Amino acid sequence: MQNAFGEPQTILLLGGTSDIGRAIVGKLVSPTCRNVVLACRTPSAAEPAIAALRRDGMTVTSIAFDASAPLTHAEFVADVVAQVGDIDVVIVAFGVLGDQATFDHDPVAASEAVTINYVGAVSVGLAVAEQFRKQGHGQLVVLSSVAGERVRKSNFVYGSSKAGLDGFAQGLGDSLEGTGAKVLVVRPGFVHSAMTAGLAAAPLSTTPDAVAEATVKALRSGRRTVWVPGALRYMFIVLRHLPGAVFRRLPLG
Amino acid sequence: MAAVGCSGVAVPVDVVNKQVALSPLTGWGRTGGSGSSVLPASSANLGDAVVHGPDRGVLMRGLGRSYGDAAQNGGGLVLRLAGSAGDAILDEATHRVTVGAGVSIDDLLRVTVPRGYFVPVTPGTRFVTIGGAIASDIHGKNHHGEGSFGNHVQRITMLLADGSTVEIGPDRGPDLFWATVGGMGLTGAIIEATIQMIPIETSRCIVDTTRAHDLEHILTLMDEGDHRYRYSVAWIDLMAKGRHLGRSVLTRGDHATVAELQGAATASPRAYDPRVIASVPPVVPLSVINTLSVKAFNEFWFRKAPMYRTGEIHSLAGFFHPLDMVGAWNRLYGPRGFVQYQFLVPFGEEEALRRIVERFAASGAASFLAVLKRFGASNPAPLSFPAPGWTLALDIPSSFNGLSDMLHDLDRIVLDAGGRHYLAKDSHTTPHAIKRGYPRLAEWQAVRDRFDPSGVWRSDLGRRLGLID
Predict the structure, then answer these.
(1) I want to staple B327 with a disulfide (CB 3.0 to 4.6 A). Which of A154, A194, B80, B276 is the partner?
(2) ipTM score for this prediction
(3) Quick check: B404 and A7 CB within 8 A?
């Protein structure tokens, strides 16, 4: 159960090696926090994160989680609950960016990416929501992306998976109204992180720390969506309504 | 399936089938909400709901005046017990009243004051139920002499986890009785209680007021003079700094006798009909409580108090429940709500109290109507809050920047001084702090385990603070 300041006692990070996810966990941890569970495909990969988070009175563990295996997700959530009890905050931070040029010629690779980014998030998101309804509280943080706000040609497989994820998360949040559970959709722009290493930064780029800062602030004030940086919201109001003929000609990396 | 029950309200059998939609609940501070299945209940059908209750457990809720998450049970069942003060039985020979746990002190006083009886202990609001008063073992302005609410309870009828009903009291099943006093509703459902009332001649109080220019002064005044008064409490301006640090207004008094009344009041000495003058509308988009508004209010409050005045006649409501004149005043704090921080430090630890007052003054946190009270002896209840020492209670908007970190720091000062936090107010502290502050917690848990081995009675507070597993 979170305290009056929205400080959680239990945090589950799905995508335990995600830079943004780890930054959010770092900012959510307070003397109130008792359990942090980092879920990733290879639990040992979370060792450095565990070491960095560890503090007195708090247990940090890692657990195996495969986003691309929806059949395992309900059981996965049940296992986490058996281990730590009620979960106050769950962060959906896993995802793959992939390379559009590769996807263009490799439909199987594209479908695998979409399975992780969208299908995996839907199935684990619903399993988490079921648990939230049972416990009557909980906050689900879904890392969407501006790439899904208006999908562009340079990364439309990734963008379309985020578009689906964003819609799913909004609808899930609305469906949980009144249950005590909430969903926060986070829409960052280009984030300098391991996922984007080597790519040219887009305008209004940001950092995992800035995303984490904005996310925690939004969680505490009870918002449903947050853009990072905030100016992107207004930029995308324009981009979303541009005629296709104009949009296609924009030099949007 | 039809609803069952005898007094019009009933637990629909749907509860058993877990088909009741969740509705969001918070405490008076409007923070940290959760969804519970909320239903009215009567003593007749309570047993059914409990025995067939959901996995997430059952909790009784009164008027929701505890500040944090004490009266909610996320994912579980929350029952409101109906009750009418009209059914209360007043025994004029023993001055005892037997009353349903769902009845509020407000309703009870409307029946008993005209007949010459006041509740033995009242908190700063009369909108609490008898059940809630026992479960939180509430205290009032007379704690230094007369102890907390539990000290005046003769008998409790309660429903246990196994569906059986028992009668307990300080001399009958004392383990369960004292675990229930201050037990935050986690030992069973209080259905009815017999309370030792205070006989009064009038519905007025006779009050002495003194201003204290700083913290040292107020502590000295209370130390030296509290024993001469039945009621004593100080309002302290936590925003005053420097040489004004801890400046306070001390009000002390007792129930007025008929001989002390003058003028019109003598015609109807026990008239009692307190009103809510105005209510705050449901939606206040922004908190109107901020540093400027509170500073101005505190300044006004301090200046309007007389330097020294004795023998003033106040109404019961004006003396005990001034905030009740404004309905839903908690909405003034806006959608993010507020936190009440109440702690105690034992006598001899005044330095810790001073450090905390200094910290609040320096922070600029908008805190108005902070209340300072000198506690007397504690009672045998393991989770009862009051103990000999000083208690300070203050309200702060929860959006105040850095408040959480500050409170975690203050928690350490409180605990290092051998003090503790009041469960009925808490919405921020940790299981560790409660374990340190309540060294008899394990003793309480052993009694609870005995009477509720499968954990039927549960609350968000119980889970958050590790009172229950």
Answers:
(1) B276
(2) 0.92
(3) yes
